[in-house]
Amino acid sequence: MILKELDLGMDYASLGLKTPEKAPSFQGLILQNYDEYCKGRKRPAVLVLPGGGYGFTSQREAAPIALEFAAAGVSAFVLHYSVAPDVRFPTELVQAYAAVRMIRENAEKWNIDPEQIYVCGFSAGGHLAASTGVFWSQDWVRKLGFAGDSHKPNGLILSYPVITGGEFAHRGSFENLLGDRYSDELVELNSLEKQVSKDTPRCFVWHTSEDNGVPVQNSLLFASALAANGVPFELHIYPHGGHGLSLANELVCDASGVLPKVQSWVPFAKEWILGR
């Protein structure tokens, strides 16, 4: 395994976007092959997008998540994308697509299966992950420099995601995402339950019914839209636990957040990726 610091090489001006004062941080835990074992193996990859209400990116939902996937034989990448007030929509989405495209373009060199690149997001990072899945084929995304499907994720892992701008919205995430661009039109566009189509990749979604930060209805609305469009998905709703649980273990939570039942999302997600 090697840890790589990666440069997205973004030219924001050419896309009509403000250049962030603080560049995004992009790192990869890339699993190596050796003649002694794993010779020629192509592995899945996961791009991890931490949450933080589009105002910061949580460390609790970054490296600890990547290490879990790497331990299962999945190369893992973490993108600390730019956030408010430095940038506004769609800069974060452009960065996420650039990361997916970089992973796919380097798949041969990094021993990655280019048809198994997943995006895993938490809370607002779940909104960003879901956005990569619902918007990838839209004309306005192509105009941002993403023609073809090199930026398309093959699947989404959504952990207590922000989804809707409606009744059950996490308003702070939408305010940070849109800032001075806030409008009914952009809230509607970013209400992702309304953007699901047959082109949306398969999904693994989990939430807790007690979440008082991002209501569980966010995941339920998205799952309902997936079902309506014939998109394969797996959904887990746990009865107990608050918002932002990450791995729900001692590494990332205090005592109140250590929930063995919720920890099961990790092996379930690994099985979902690896097809076991």
Notes on the structure:
The chain has 276 residues and is α/β, with parallel strands linked by helices. Helices cover 29% and strands 19% of the residues. It contains nine helices and eight strands. It has an eight-stranded mixed sheet with strand order 1-2-4-3-5-6-7-8, sandwiched between helices. Helix 2 (91-105) crosses helix 3 (124-135). The longest helix is centred in the middle third of the chain and has 15 residues, at 91-105. The model has no long low-confidence stretch (mean pLDDT 95).
Order of helices and strands: EEEHEHEHHEHHEHEHH
Structural class: alpha/beta
Beta-strand residue fraction: 15-25%
End-to-end separation: 23 Å
Q: What is the approximate shape?
A: globular
Largest sheet geometry: 8 strands, mixed
Q: Segments where pLDDT lies below 50 for 5+ residues? A: none
Q: Count every beta strand, where a strand is a DSSP E run of 2 or more residues.
A: 8
Radius of gyration: 17 Å
Distinctive features:
276 residues; alpha/beta; 8-stranded mixed β-sheet; 9 helices; 19% strand
